[in-house]
C-alpha cells in the first residue's frame, strides 16, 4: 500500500514537473533503520504561489486536503496537509524556498520503488534535516543513518550545520560531532 502511494505521488509530481524529495520517516526507511511511520513528508521545489498546481495534483491523485482554507494555511505554515483515503497515510507537502532546500533538491537520490523511480533526499541532507528537527527520535535516526552509510560527506553536512547554527542560533554542529564521534568509540 505504501509503495503504491509513493509511486502515485512520484508519478504525479514528475508529470506536473514539480521538483520534490521524499524526506522524514520514509527516507529513514531507505537510509536508516526501518521503523513504523504512517505519513509521507514531501519537500517541493516550488513556492506557495504554486498552490493551485499542487491542489490539481492532489485532486488527480485522490488525496483529501486536510484544511478548510488551504491558501491561508499554506501562507502561514508553508505546508499543505493531505490524506490518502485508501491507505489512511497522511501526506504533508512542504513548500520550499531556501538556498539549502534548493541545493538539497539538486542532490536527491533517485531510487526504484516498484515500477517507479522516486526522488528521496540524500542521506547527508536527511542527517541535516533530522538534526534541525532535533527531537529524540530524529537524533536516533541520525545514529542509524550514520551507521548504515559510512561514506557520507561529513564536510557537506558540517558546512550546512554551521549555516543553520548561525541562522537559528543553535549548536547542531556540536550535536553532530557528538553523535558521529560516539559511533567511532
Structural write-up:
The strands form two sheets. The chain has a five-stranded mixed sheet with strand order 1-2-5-4-3. Strand 6 and strand 7 form a beta hairpin. Helix content is 53%, strand content 18%. The protein folds into two domains: 1-121, 2-Layer Sandwich (Beta Polymerase, domain 2), CATH 3.30.460; 123-185, no CATH class. The mean pLDDT is 95. By secondary structure, the protein is α+β, with helices and mostly antiparallel strands.
Q: Alpha-carbon distance between the termini? A: 40 Å
Could you say how many structural domains there are in total?
A: 2
Number of distinct helices: 9
Residue fraction in strands: 15-25%
- Low-pLDDT stretches: none
Radius of gyration: 17 Å
Structural class computed from helices and strand pairing: alpha+beta
Shape verdict: globular
> What is the helix/strand order?
HEHEHEHEEHEEHHHH
Q: How many strands, which pairing sense, and closed or not: the largest β-sheet?
A: 5 strands, mixed
User: Mind telling me which CATH architecture of the largest domain this is?
Assistant: 2-Layer Sandwich
Percent helix range: 40-55%
What is the highest CATH level, the class of the largest domain? Answer: Alpha Beta
Strand order of the largest sheet: 1-2-5-4-3
Number of distinct beta strands = 7
Fold-level CATH name of the largest domain: Beta Polymerase, domain 2
- Average predicted local confidence, pLDDT: 95
